[in-house]
Design goal:
With 248 residues, the chain is α/β, with parallel strands linked by helices. 49% of the residues lie in helices and 15% in strands. The longest helix is centred in the middle third of the chain and has 27 residues. Bound molecules: NADP nicotinamide-adenine-dinucleotide phosphate.
Length: 248
């Protein structure tokens, strides 16, 4: 699709992958709006990238999702690309005498990673439908293909995003072909989320580069970096893919 002169909302655009996607879209002459919880982090992103807009918003709160979309409708006036990037990861050990997690933590992780994506997408669809060409970009993970043991809820939310994206794409193809649905499946990326763990991480700049290039070529399932190899291994030797990711 054409990736200039679009109006782009990037959730979690103040850090990591989202920040680099914001920079990339800005470099290509798009109007870029980012959202996140932390106002200082949003301000730092503006200082770094320049002329982008910010909306402070906690996607775990349904009222904030409504307020975000109202701002888009009333102050921005249009939306052509929605990037559902914001995400959080908690590590749980489900077998522990004194669990370090609560049911609220589980709700929170599912709310940010999955419910917010579905709700924000639902509320943005009327704006996206008004455009001749528009897109929804969901950010998923290689852990949606083969999970790791330490983050079962996170992996479950990313698997759900992967399948949600596919089914939503079918609906758009049949009913609203002006809306493309992309699923960016990421490998381990060097961001705050992975600080202090994991080897062989790629940079968020590399992610932004690959996602942008794939969107330009209308590749809807975007396997970034080593995810290309993971998909291949999972197809031929699923037990090996499971073994590689299990303790990653
Ligand atoms: N890093 C990896 O290895 C990796 C691998 C596969 C997939 N991914 C996915 O890539 C996406 C980006 O991850 P990242 O590594 O760039 O994470 P990150 O560096 O931790 O950045 C997360 C961004 O999301 C925002 N955010 C978090 N919770 C939010 C909430 N409740 N409401 C609004 N904004 C919120 C954060 O801003 P505030 O804290 O200010 O809210 C920040 O801007 C996520 O969906 C993640 O699951 C990452």
């Amino acid at each position: 699709m054409k990736l200039s002169k679009q109006t782009v909302l990037i959730t979690g655009g103040s850090a990591g992958v989202g920040l680099e996607l914001a920079r990339k879209f800005k470099q290509h002459n798009n109007r870029v709006i980012i959202c996140g919880r932390n106002a200082e982090q949003l301000a730092r992103a503006v200082q770094e990238i320049g002329d982008i807009e910010t909306i402070q918003c906690d996607l775990a709160q349904e009222s904030d999702i409504h307020a975000l979309v109202e701002t888009l409708k009333n102050k921005v006036g249009e939306l052509s690309i929605l990037v559902n990037n914001a995400g959080v990861q908690l590590n749980y050990n489900f077998i522990q005498a004194e669990p370090e997690y609560t049911l609220k933590d589980i709700d929170w992780e599912i709310d940010v990673n999955l419910n917010a994506v579905i709700k924000l997408t639902t509320l943005c669809l009327p704006l996206l439908r008004q455009q001749p060409e528009s897109a929804i970009v969901n950010v998923s993970s290689g852990l949606a293909i083969a999970p790791k043991s330490t983050a079962p809820v996170y992996c479950a939310t990313k698997a759900a995003i992967h399948i949600f994206s596919k089914a939503l794409r079918y609906q758009m193809e049949d009913n609203a072909p002006n809306i493309a649905v992309y699923d960016a499946i990421l490998p381990l990326v060097d961001t705050n989320m992975t600080r202090g763990r994991g080897k062989g991480k790629i940079s968020p700049q590399q992610v932004a580069h690959e996602v942008f290039a794939a969107m330009e070529r209308n590749r809807y399932e975007i396997c970034v970096g080593k995810v290309k190899l993971l998909v291949l291994i999972n197809r031929i030797l699923p037990q090996l893919a499971a073994k590689i990711l299990r303790n990653s």
